[in-house]
Amino acid sequence: ILVSNTTSYSVRGVAGKVKDISVSGARLHVFDEIGELGETIQLKGKFDLEGCQRVLSINAVIRSFVAGDGDSFLYGVEFCGVDEPEKIFLIGYVYHAMANGTLETVN
């Protein structure tokens, strides 16, 4: 995924990975700081669900932050303002991951 800060616009296109995801939010592993608690970010990534790929741009609010090892950081984010078509795809993605016990790659 790529992460941009939409509150301060000082952070653009930081690379990262989704480590855990639910319908309401996610835990992100990123390689640079992306913002402060309460700031709004945008996640952009390609989600693959049984061969059906979608590029989703999802807004989220930073709810938690933990400095990781070296140059990595963990953020907990809460999704906000997700459009209905994206939300439907995201629900399918999350429930598929739950049913199979796996989190498929989000690029």
SSE layout:
Blueprint: E1 2-5, E2 14-21, E3 25-30, E4 40-49, E5 52-67, E6 73-79, H1 84-100
Any overview of this molecule?
The structure is a single chain. The protein is an alpha+beta fold and 107 residues long. It has one helix and six strands; from the N terminus they run ββββββα. It has a six-stranded antiparallel barrel. The model has no long low-confidence stretch (mean pLDDT 89).
Which terms would index this structure?
globular, 6-stranded antiparallel barrel, 107 residues, alpha+beta, 1 helix
The gist of it:
This protein has one helix at 84-100; strands at 2-5, 14-21, 25-30, 40-49, 52-67, 73-79. It has 107 residues and is α+β, with helices and mostly antiparallel strands. Strands 1-2-3-6-5-4 form a 6-stranded antiparallel β-barrel.
Counting helices, strands and paired strands, the structural category is alpha+beta
Distance between the termini: 5 Å
Strand content: over 45%
Strand adjacency order, main sheet: 1-2-3-6-5-4
Number of helices: 1
Order of helices and strands: EEEEEEH
Portion in helices: 10-25%
As an assembly, this protein is single chain
Give average pLDDT, whole number: 89
Largest sheet: 6 strands, antiparallel, barrel
The 3D shape can be described as globular
Strand tally: 6
